[in-house]
Amino acid sequence: MKIPQKTVHKFLRHGKKFPHVWCPGCSNGIVLGAIIRAVDELGYEKDDMAMVSGIGCSSRMPVYVDFNTLHTLHGRAIPFATGLKMVKPKMNVCVVTGDGDSSAIGGNHLIHAARRNIDLTVIVVNNNIYGMTGGQYSPTTPTGAKATTTQYGNIDPVFDLCKLVEGAGATFVARTTAYHVVEAQSLIKQAFEHKGFSLVEIVSACPVIYGRLNKKGTGPQMMQEMKERAIPLKAFEKLPADKLEDKYSRGIMVNIDKPEYTAQYQKLIDSLQPKEGDK
Amino acid sequence: MAKKTTKKNVVLMQGNEAVARGALAAGVNFFAGYPITPSTEVAEILSVELPKIGGTFIQMEDEIASIAAIIGGSLAGAKTMTATSGPGFSLMQEGIGYAKITETPCVVVNVMRGGPSTGLPTKPSQSDIMQARWGSHGDAPAIVLYPNSVLESYELTIRAVNLAEKYRTCVVLLSDEVLGHMREAVDIPEINESKLIKRIKPTTPPEWYQHYPDNAKYISPVASFGEGYRFHVTGLTHDSKGFPTNRSDEAQIQNERLKKKITHHLDDLVQVEDYLMEDARVAVFAVGITSRAAKEAVRSARSRNRKVGMLRPLTIWPFPDNVIREKFKNVKAVVVPELSEGQLLNELKRVLRKMNIKLYPIQKTNGELITPDEITQAIKEVRK
User: In angstroms, rounded to a whole number, what is the distance separating the alpha carbons of residues B243 and B232?
Assistant: First the structure.
């Protein structure tokens, strides 16, 4: 076998797991690469890494990496990860989820994990659609956009995932795109290092389904659109109202310190242990 | 019956408390749950006791999250449990199926209340017998236990945890509102460490490790996350290493594995109480709280020199088909009292279909218990 040359190869499972399931032009591979390089930079041991996912295209990610990997039920990656983290607080637990998985069926778990400030790193691959089931609209499908269940245009307003988890109490919140891959890697790395609930939303491209339904062009054209529409947070805040249309911010939205949940629980355990001098 | 115990171990205890104490004795060190009547005491007690021993309690946002969390915790190596009742048990069904296909040990306690839907939250019922078996989609078999006393709630909780660890599956412990809330004086037995089962750890090098090996006994060593094995867990049908597969030959092997690990161990799993069945011509077949009234009715019939006995499965699933057929071979009629519209009766019909035995159902779903008198009355009618 040829000796692996790239960083990612050190972390991928070889053999029958490839070729992967993703379509040409999909951003999932870019996100997986960014996660792996962030883990490599941090020097985390593979044994100390857990990747947990729900159901969907991005949730197929764990099968390819040589971590402790857990592919769960639709929407439930976060509570599975919560149980894992509570039992093994030293494990670096990363949740990979999609927009529908995290904010529709799994919305309740998302906000409550953020509220607890449990040390999970949640990476939301937001492609604005349910890809695996063939293109139905999700809570992040733009109003007016087409999906197989919004053939007349979507009338639903959208979730801003970053604002949602910020409101719920998340202590590290960031957004970038699959185009800004170096930034993605850096944000994921910071999210891993952050003690508490962190969420990184990565706006991504689904050219085969979402792109085709909405005449967004090819994968590279959708990446070009990300480049144009995603504005660094500081610049975004200075934009006049008339130029905000079609733009969204990228960068770190929230980065604060608050007591982390497993640490708080350990304190509780410690406080209940018999102290020296106790009968 | 002469007992040698000192009074120190005898305590007045509620069924739900006995479940919590049993969980602690069995080594449960992670509990995730959501409040629901009539099971809440289990969570309340464990929230106090678990952190004292370095274990973890967490109240999740719903029952779906609770079952997910105990599966995640179990994969990290903990002995895990949750407790709920009807509506919560329904919500947990998808997760229970996940625990079964991924062969992850965990225990779900379901303190049954009246249904359907929100139903009768503060009244007993036995109408989750079938949900405990067939609630989750797919064919995975089930291990389900159902005690009939506070002491047995304690003992069967320990057994449930042991069986979950041994058979690598989600074991359901049924209880009911009356059993959960009634208090009895119980002599808590000393639990010897050797009676506690812990999942077997693999000794193979990681590259040879199979999370779901094809072996004759279907009881195989299992690694936890963080032990160097880095295996994959998925709810998709998987191969022996745990990776998703669409191949029909691999799917067949894994589905058979789930089935056979139960059917190959019926002797170990099936537990039945036989009360005066030896010469019985009429039998009462009852489970859980209803069997307490049944036993009283049998006692009263015996005092009138009637040849009546009682058969009570402690293991509801797998259903004790062979034991029932053996015990009922000289029986002419069976009274089947239950707090459901025939969930036990129909199963019994299936088992006895080739035997010439008349079945007399007594069914109540109004939240009241079936009384010894009602069963006595049925026994009298049967004998006419």
Answer: 6
